[in-house]
Write a structure and sequence with these properties.
- The structure is a single chain.
- The chain has 678 residues and is an all-alpha fold.
- Among the domains are: 156 residues, Tetratricopeptide repeat domain (Serine Threonine Protein Phosphatase 5, Tetratricopeptide repeat, Alpha Horseshoe), CATH 1.25.40.10; 96 residues, Tetratricopeptide repeat domain (Serine Threonine Protein Phosphatase 5, Tetratricopeptide repeat), CATH 1.25.40.10.
- Helix content is 76%, strand content 0%.
- It has 32 helices and no strands.
- Helix 11 packs antiparallel against helix 12 and helix 21 runs antiparallel to helix 22.
- It is elongated and about 95 Å long.
- The N terminus is likely disordered.
């Protein structure tokens, strides 16, 4: 199940900060030394790479097609009706595979009516058409329409003596998949358990159908944050499939793919890459390099490389995946929309906001056309676009998009689904950007209650919510409430993600920022050093997140007046950022600003001015002239000019900064007070 989101702020003394990106990008995490901010947690945005399409229940259920063909060939009365039902059924399945659900549903409904007319509403052969139609409704996000159809199939099985058979287990497995999509984990667990017991007793514990339900159970445990149990089940499913079907079977590739998703979530990228490459080889050998399942593998490989910071390889794989899926399914298939969303995230990470917007908008448009405007996948696309609007300071539009995303999820998934919590947190992050801390706190607390109820008290997503709520309290200067939340979030992550997961480094960085504000420099440095060691070991020494930690570590040294130690840390962060993103990226601008403040403090005003002006030009280009980040840069540049007796120029910059802030933030925002003191 996809998870998605978050944002930024300023220090307790009222200085404006660089704004981290909402939506999972590294943009803007590096903060000017004089006013380092907290970097919001982004776990709900980066977890759960796309899994291969779940096994379809109608594949396991004895289909109606064979039954009808026997009727036709025997010359039974009503064979024309039967033949029409067969063709409608077959065509609906073909359209399902192409992602054309709106076209498939009327045919599936027609096949159902004809089957009922031919055999009666309780005949066993009606069950296959019901299952097909329920699968289509499920893919459309019409969960309320799908559930009664699956339940009706179970009643037919019961009335015809088929309960406890392999066929009824297929329907139970489908119900498990449905409840998973709805976030009803307890109900999903029950149905999967029933299916597993039936298949193990009727088919044996080593049958491929057992592997299918194990796959569903593994995904359930993964979504609950129980990745160790999920890994065990995926491995058992893989072993069954390799033994029963052979190591080169396409279902083995599916198990490899889904097991790789566990390792991606753990940031064990080497093991994930090995499994995905093997799965790709199996599928290419079985179906050829242009098969859509190969396209899905390439999509996940692209996600892996994006997380590792290898953006060039990620872009190549995303484009390859997009081409395969467009050629296989057509340009309007829902899976095409998902790849476009991933491409948009990559552009956003690299600071190319215009290209990111084009990809996000295209993804949204395709999802709406293919699935309808109220599908949960549309809510995901809305959320990505809202995150970009928050970053580029289009707050009014961002709020509308987040609200629409929330309404869709509440209507389709229920008000307590974890994805509803994502929407609430997106809105909360937006409020935090606007310094509306009271509303941000309320929304985060709502999200927190949902996560504790639905996902439990030890889930990584709960840790992200705690982390973001703590940032609100830190921004308000309420360090006493912020600190235990940061520490609880870190404890959850250590227990669920392990001690070497790079996600810990973000929470450590936030806790370190708080300790720095409280004057606890040694603990701040210890936390940052531990986070840096994790990132260098897991992500490599040239990853952009390493640059963010170096900036923060330099910030502690700067605050202590240790300019000799701070300077090489900033310079290394700058080299990493320029290598990863190029010389015009917002993260590069933030590091340049940090260095400028360092040289300013050392009295090297000429060098400071050069770097600050370069930083200012980058953010003006990337964010536009009326973004608050530009105002912050103008304010810092004005300080420099005031020290070099360019008073007139300094006043002009302060006035322009004030104009931008009043327009973007409103006249009562706390950043304006800092500018007026400038």
């Amino acid at each position: 199940m996809a998870r998605h989101h978050h944002h930024s702020q300023e220090n307790a003394e009222g200085g404006a900060s660089w704004r981290p990106v909402s939506g999972g990008s590294s943009c803007g995490i590096a903060i000017p030394s004089a006013c380092r901010a907290f970097a919001p947690s982004i776990w709900p945005q980066t977890k759960n790479p796309r899994r291969l399409r779940p096994d379809l229940s109608f594949v396991c259920r004895v289909g109606m097609t064979t039954v009808f063909l026997v009727v036709i060939q025997s010359g039974a009365k009503g064979q024309d009706d039967a033949g029409g039902a067969v063709s409608a059924y077959r065509r609906s399945v073909e359209l399902y595979e192409q992602g054309k659900y709106d076209s498939a549903i009327p045919l599936a409904e027609r096949a159902l009516r004809m089957t009922e007319a031919r055999f009666g509403p309780e005949h066993p052969d009606v069950a296959a058409t019901l299952t097909n139609l329920a699968n289509l409704y499920r893919q459309k996000g019409e969960y309320a329409r799908a559930e009664p159809l699956y339940l009706r199939v179970l009643r037919i099985d019961q009335e015809t003596g088929q309960s406890g058979t392999a066929q009824s287990a297929a329907t139970l497995n489908s119900l498990g998949n449905l409840y998973m999509a709805m976030g009803e984990y307890a109900r999903a667990d029950v149905r999967y358990g029933q299916a597993l017991r039936i298949w193990e007793s009727t088919l044996g514990p080593e049958h491929p159908n057992v592997a299918m339900v194990l796959n569903g159970l593994a995904n359930l445990f993964s979504d609950r944050g129980e990745d160790v149990r999920a890994e065990q089940l995926h491995k058992r499913a893989l072993a069954i499939r390799e033994k029963a079907l052979g190591p080169g079977h396409q279902l083995v590739a599916q198990s490899l793919h889904n097991l790789a998703s566990i390792y991606i979530e753990r940031a064990d990228y080497a093991r994930a890459e090995e499994l995905l490459v093997r799965a790709r080889g199996i599928l290419e050998k079985s179906f050829g390099p242009e098969h859509p399942e190969v396209g899905q593998i390439l999509h996940n490989l692209g996600t892996l490389y994006r997380l590792r910071g290898d953006y060039q390889r990620a872009e190549q794989l995303f484009e390859q995946s997009l081409g395969i899926l467009q050629r296989a399914h057509g340009p309007t298939n829902p899976v095409v929309a998902e790849v476009l969303g991933s491409i948009g995230l990559l552009h956003q990470t690299r600071g190319n906001f215009q290209r990111a917007r084009l990809s996000f908008e295209q993804s949204l448009r395709l999802a709406e056309e293919a699935l309808g405007p109220e599908h949960p996948t549309v809510a995901d696309a809305l959320e990505r676009l809202a995150g970009l609007d928050t970053l580029t300071w289009n707050h009014s539009r961002a709020e509308l998009l987040y609200e629409r995303s929330r309404r869709i999820r509440e209507a389709k998934l229920g008000p307590r689904h974890p994805l509803v919590a994502n929407s609430l947190e997106g809105l909360a992050g937006l409020c935090r950007e606007k310094a509306d801390y009271a509303r941000a706190e309320t929304l985060y607390l709502q999200a927190l209650r949902i996560r504790e109820h639905m996902q439990g008290s030890r889930h990584p997503d709960l840790a992200a919510t705690l982390d973001n709520l703590a940032i609100v309290y830190a921004n308000k200067g309420d360090f006493g409430r912020a600190k235990p939340l940061f520490e609880r979030a870190l404890d959850i992550q250590e227990k669920t993600l392990g001690l070497k997961h790079p996600g810990l480094a973000k929470t450590m960085s936030n806790l370190a920022a708080l300790c720095q504000e409280m004057g606890e420099y040694q603990r701040a440095e210890d936390l940052l050093m531990r986070g840096l060691e994790i990132q260098e070991e897991v992500l490599g020494p040239e990853h952009p997140e390493v640059a963010a930690s170096l900036n923060n570590l330099a910030s502690v040294a700067y605050a202590k007046g240790d300019y000799v130690r701070a300077e090489p840390l900033y310079q290394r962060a700058l080299r990493i950022g320029e290598k990863a993103f190029g010389s015009e990226h917002p993260d590069v601008a933030a590091t340049l600003s940090n260095l400028a403040m360092l040289y300013y403090s050392k009295g090297d005003y000429a060098h400071a001015e050069e770097l600050m002006i370069r930083s200012l030009r980058i953010v003006e280009k990337e964010f536009g002239p009326d973004h608050p980040v530009v105002a912050n840069g103008l304010r810092l540049a004005a300080w420099l000019y005031s020290e070099t007796e360019h008073v007139t120029r300094a006043e002009a910059m302060l006035n322009e900064a004030l104009r931008i802030q009043v327009k973007a933030l409103g006249p009562e925002h706390r950043d304006i007070a800092a500018t007026l003191r400038g």
